[in-house]
């Protein structure tokens, strides 16, 4: 359910002054949240039907290429800190998540078919199942593993006011995140100390300036990004745009 719970019903760790600012903003946008959920249901239903042949081809290719299940089902965190098992097409060897939970670009755990799937961003389309179930929304903060949610600052907890998402502005700007981690000796440390805070800046701003039509815009930006458009050069302008809104 997309609509917000009453403040008193939020988990205790979310009932803080840092989260309250974002809660009050979203509370005034209940109509937009309702249409956001309706949009999720309609679009995910249509895409699951249209992409069903792609699902079948990917499933066969993954099973032929390596041992293991078709879907990768790691535990992630969504709205109000609820845990769920995400659906993603498996692109790595079985039990790969026993190591680091962030991936570099030339990660040896990635399978041959998995490399192609990742390059085309096709592993993410399985999350349409999660969108239909309501644990994930089309546009929202990417679902983190419990390991990284444990590192959230009090303000970052505000991102759990809404369901986790398939795509977001931060995801678009950091779509080559794996390459940023290539040179890191300790990928988890670099992710937690540098990349996570940088992405959270945009995640929190997206909640602060949330609108239904803003989500639609992110959907189109995601499509263009998958087709090759690079938005890195635009992030400074986006930051200025946010700063202007705050004045």
TrEMBL record:
The keyword Oxidoreductase is annotated on this UniProt entry: no
GO function term, MF aspect, one: phosphotransferase activity, for other substituted phosphate groups
Location of the Bacterial sugar transferase domain: 36-226
Organism superkingdom: Bacteria
Stored InterPro entries: Bact_transf
Pfam family, one: Bac_transf
Family: Belongs to the bacterial sugar transferase family.
PANTHER family cross-referenced by the UniProt entry: COLANIC BIOSYNTHESIS UDP-GLUCOSE LIPID CARRIER TRANSFERASE, UNDECAPRENYL-PHOSPHATE N-ACETYLGALACTOSAMINYL 1-PHOSPHATE TRANSFERASE-RELATED
Protein name: Sugar transferases involved in lipopolysaccharide synthesis
